[in-house]
Design a protein that fits this description.
With about 150 residues, the protein is an alpha+beta fold. It is built from 3 helices and 12 strands, in the order E-H-H-E-E-E-E-E-E-E-H-E-E-E-E. It has helices at about 10-20, 30-45, 110-115; strands at about 1-5, 50, 55-60, 65-70, 85-90, 95, 100, 105-110, 120, 135, 140, 145-150. The protein is globular, with a radius of gyration of 14 Å. The mean pLDDT is about 95.
């Protein structure tokens, strides 16, 4: 997993958080801020993504967090997902809401301040047992931009 610092601006975050109609909906059209993020990830990784078929993005606000999972889906319903991106949009002054990755013999907790406005990007799949992760429950506002991307074949 890697991080690209300050991939979006505070104004970008404010724009994404202001439209609650977008929350927790799969958005398959990549334009505006989401497309800009994909372009920056593409430059940093030299990976080309297929944005026409399965890839999608969403703004998520989920106080109960997420149990341990891979981004290919608990029931392997997203095996097409080759690459994931998480950007913390809200101010990192909430309690809990830790994003934790399971490593070989330990866990790694992502620093909230480092995650704020920055893209945590990684591969996560069950087949390779790669980057299993979770998010703990939280109090306060924790809103993230999530992108689930398929490689261009």
């Amino acid at each position: 997993m890697n991080i690209i610092s300050n991939i979006i601006t505070k104004q970008d975050a404010k724009t994404l958080m202001s439209n609650e109609d977008m929350f927790c909906r799969k958005i398959k059209v990549f334009d505006g801020i989401a497309l800009d993020v994909v372009k920056k990830i593409r430059v940093a990784t030299n990976i080309k993504f297929n944005l026409k078929d399965n890839s999608y993005w969403k703004v998520e606000k989920r106080p109960n967090g997420h149990n341990w999972h891979y981004d290919t889906g608990t029931n392997d319903h997203m095996t097409w997902c080759d690459y994931s991106v998480s950007i913390l949009l809200s101010d990192p002054n909430f309690k809990g809401g830790d994003m934790i990755f399971k490593l070989d013999k330990s866990n790694y907790t992502v620093d909230k301040k480092e995650h704020y406005l920055s893209a945590l990007h990684y591969r996560s799949n069950k087949k390779e047992k790669l980057n299993k992760h979770m998010v703990t429950k939280h109090n306060g506002e924790r809103i993230v931009l999530l992108l689930f991307l398929e490689y261009q074949k």
